[in-house]
Amino acid sequence: MKFLPFLRPLLEFSFAVLAIILGLRFITSFFSRESKVYRPMFLRQLYLLFWPLLCMGVGLPFLASFVYLGSISSAFELVLLLALASVVLGFSIPALVLHAQYYARNLRTTLVFDPKQNRLEVYEGRVRIPFRQADMVRVERVTCKSRRLFWSNYDYVRLYLRTGEVLTLTSILTNLEPLAEFLRNTNLQHRESWFCFA
C-alpha cells in the first residue's frame, strides 16, 4: 500500500491543472468568435470522455481496494464485486474503445464547415481533399440507437465521393448534427447502431 500516499498528491495536481485549463478556456471563450475549423481538441474529448472517466474514477479505486487489501471473505462479497466491476467496465470500456478508434481515424483530419458561406472542406494533415457537394455520390450518417449510454455521443458521417474515396468524419471533431442538416439535399442515408464503429 505504498502507492496510496503518492496517489493523492498526483490526483490533486491533476485536478488543479484541469481546473486551470478549463478556467482559462472559459475566460477566453468570451473574447473569441465561434470557430469554423474543427480538429480533435482537448475540450471536445473531455466532453465525450467525461462520464466514462468519471465512472472508472469512482469504480476502479473501490475495486482495487478489494483486490489489494484482500478483504473478500465471502461469496456474496465476490458476487457484489463482480457485479460492480461489470457495471464500471461495461459502461466505460465501449466508450473508451470508440474514442480511441475515432481519435486514430481523425487525428490528422481538419474539418472546415461554415453553412452560411456554403463551405465544406476536409483536410488530411495539411492537404485539402478536393470535392464539391455535387461530387458526393452518397452520404451515410450513423448514430447510436440509445441516447442514454456513455457512448451515445459517438457517431460519424461518411462521404462517398465519385472518385471512389470515402471520407469519415467522426464526432471527435464536432457535433455532426449541423453537418447532416447541411447535407440533407444529398443522397443522405441515416442508420442507427448500438456501437458506431467507424
TrEMBL record:
Q: Name one Pfam family in it.
A: PH_40
Source organism, top-level taxon: Bacteria
**InterPro entries xref list:** PH_40 (IPR058916)
Transmembrane segments annotated in the record for this chain: 6-27, 48-69, 75-98
* The PH domain, residue ranges: 37-182
Cite the entry's keywords alphabetically: Membrane, Transmembrane, Transmembrane helix
Q: What is this protein called?
A: PH domain-containing protein
